[in-house]
Design a protein that fits this description.
elongated, alpha+beta, DNA binding, 108 residues, HU Protein, Chain A, translation regulation, Histone-like_DNA-bd_CS, transcription, IHF_beta, 36% helix
């Protein structure tokens, strides 16, 4: 699923929201996750999973064309660990609708 497909599905599932608003929401969520990872923070979405960064140490690599040794600097790479609910649903667990919040009737 691409970002645009996600936005289209969310807009269809939430007709009270305009598509540009859904696009802004999705972009904002992704931007916040990216910003938190850039700061070195961990982002946990209960039931879905956790985003974090892992550190790769510097190493010596090889140029595939020439075979010469090349120094590769250490770096941080994004890492995703799926949550229990996501793993169970992907591995054949029951596909159930996520719980929806129901508003209590307004008091008059």
């Amino acid at each position: 699923m691409t970002r645009s497909e996600l936005i289209t599905q969310l807009a269809a599932a939430n007709p009270h929201l305009r598509q540009p608003d859904v696009e802004l929401i999705v972009t904002t969520i992704f931007d916040e996750i990216i910003t938190a990872l850039a700061r070195g923070d961990r982002v946990e979405l209960r039931g879905f999973g956790a985003f974090s960064t892992k550190r790769r140490d510097p190493r010596t690599g090889r140029n595939p064309r020439t075979g010469t040794a090349v120094a590769v600097e250490g770096k941080a790479v994004p890492y995703f660990k799926p949550g229990k609910e996501l793993r169970e649903r992907v591995n054949g667990g029951p596909l159930q609708e996520p719980p929806r919040k129901v508003r209590a009737p307004a008091k008059v």
